[in-house]
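Morning F.,

Quick status update on the modeling queue. The single chain you submitted on Monday has been processed. Sequence for confirmation:
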Amino acid sequence: MTPHRTIDAWIRSHPAQVDATLAIGLWALLALSTVVLGGMTGTHRFLEFVIGSLQVVPLIWRRSHLLASSAVVTLGCLLQVALVPTFLPTQVTVPIVVYTLAKFGKRWASYAGLCAGMAGAVLATLRYGTVNGQAIGLHLLPSFVGLALIVLVSWTFGDLARTRRLAVRALEDRATRLEVERQQERELAASDERGRIAREMHDIVAHSLSVIITQADGARYASEKEPEIARETLSTISETGRKSLREMRRLLGVLRGDEQASTRPLPTLEDIPELLEATRTAGLEVGYDVQGSPRRELPPGAELTGYRAVQEALTNTIKHAGPAARADVLLRWTSSGLELEVIDDGRGAGATDDNVGAQQGLVGMAERVALYDGRISTGPRPHGGFSASIFIPYTED
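Structure tokens below.
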């Protein structure tokens, strides 16, 4: 950083020290001119020193106490005009105060400082603009113009600095708001992604483990009396585990951003028969019926939502419906969207104590459906069993 930039940065970051240095420097100049070099009597020198001090000392607080310090400086200038017959070097405080009011004060204070400066130029001209003790108009005019010009230039620079200060503050506020909004967007995106990952992992793991557990229980009972059935059951367990592992690797590959991760398409409604077949191998009898035809295609994400909803409903049936239960899946296309219904004749959701996973799955199912402005209704049936009804509307352009 160049020296002048270093100095500018220090001045901007230490305003109180700068104001104190300015005030002390002017006060020292006042002491030098009125005490050491003064040619008048001691009383006059003391009066000049007191009035000059009123003009320079308040500069220490010209930013922290703007109006109060400006009022004291104005009072000192009025006392000078009334009591001191000559200019004082501390009159330099007038353009400083006018500049400060224009830069840091409110709009009314800025204009008040300009008017006070102009009035001071008139009074100073009338008080000190004389020739041989006589006030002559032609000689007063240049004096007034010079003083007024100093005041006007000071106010103009202060007003420009005020405009720049407000513009910089607006840009800083906007940058702060944008940063906060970006942070909130990142947090929301991370939260949505965590929810999506949780739903995907639950759908993949819960269904596969439910099938594996059911098959393993059956294989254990059949291993002694019917070894052939046990071997078929173990084969189903192995295939289900491999399929679940492939799905898990695909999901983890996507999360890692692995370019070589599996690009196999995500399940759609056309994959529901395959899902039902895998469910039947777990020992659950499942019926399937399709009614109507689609008026238009659903987005791929909506079809995945429908598939996962059926998968979750069947998983809950396997886990909670009890032995010898039956489930029926109905896929109905209407003029407004897709209706899915999965019902069973089991013991209902309250038949077992292991309901935490089911509730988590139902929550994930509701979150998926809500993403596509759909609705879901789940609960025990009046005459036994459990039902899950899902509606996913068409996405209108």
